Amino acid sequence: MKYFWLVIISAFLIVAGSDKAFSQQTEIGFKGGFNIYSLNFEGEADTGSRTTLQYGFIGRFYPVRIRPLTLQTELNYSPQGVYLKSSDAVVRLDQINVPILFQYLFDNNIRVQAGPQLGFLMNAWADYDGATHDIANRFRKVDLSLSAGLSYPLMPNGLGIDIRYNLGLIRISTDDTYRSSNRGLQISVFYLFDFKKGSKR
Predict the structure, then answer these.
(1) Which helix (H) or strand (E) element contains residue 16?
(2) Which end of the chain is more exposed for a tag (fewer CB within 10 A), N or C?
C-alpha cells in the first residue's frame, strides 16, 4: 500500500506544479466501460476471459511547445481476473490502475496513445467448489503493464471513446507453480471538462 499512496501523492504534486509546463490547456474528467481481462498462465492453455465494468478519473495535459503531444494520467478501479476452464474456477482480482499515457494527436482528432501502467492489488478471490476463497497472498501487490490504444472524441463537448490493450510486463503470482501475468482489452467512454482554452480535445 505504501507504493500506492506514493504514486497518488506524486500525481497530485505533478498536477499542482504543471501550470508552466502545461499552460495551454488542462482537461479533467471521468471514464467508464468494459474490461475483457485474462491471466497469462504459463503451462495453462485452457483459460477464458473475465468481462467486468471499470471506471475512473482522467487528467490530460498539453505541453506548451509540443503541440501534437499530450500527457494523460488516470486513476481507475479495474476488476480483472481469469476463468480456469480445467478446474471450473474464477479468479477475481480488484486493482487500482494508474496509467501514464503519451498521446499523439492527428488532424482528424484521433489520438494514438501508449505508456506504462502501474497496478495496485486491492483484493484477490477465487470462486470454486461452491465457495469463495481469499487468495491475495498468492499475488504481488504491485503490477507493471504496457498500455497502448486509440482515443477519439465522439462530440465536441468532451464526450469520447477509448480503446486500449494492457499487456502485463511482470509476473504477478508469488507461486512458482502457476506463473501468471495480466493482459486485457479495455473499451471506455469518457467525458472531459476543459479548464484552459486554446487547444482541441
Answers:
(1) helix 2-16
(2) N
- Name the residue among 60, 57, 11 with its Cα closest to residue 32: 57
Amino acid at 150: L
Higher pLDDT, 22 or 29: 29
Instruction: State the burial class of residue 115 (Cβ atoms within 10 Å of its Cβ: 0-12, 13-18, 19+).
Output: middle
Structure confidence at residue 135 (pLDDT): 92
Domains, in order of start, for the chain: 2-194 (2.40.160.20)
Residue 60: beta bridge partners? Answer: 27, 72
- Tell me how far CA of residue 173 lies from CA of 100, 116, 140, 180, 201, in angstroms: 24, 20, 6, 6, 39
20-34, 81-95, 97-111, 128-142: lowest mean pLDDT where? 20-34
Q: pLDDT tens for residues 104-156?
A: 999 888 999 999 999 999 999 999 988 999 999 999 999 999 999 999 999 88
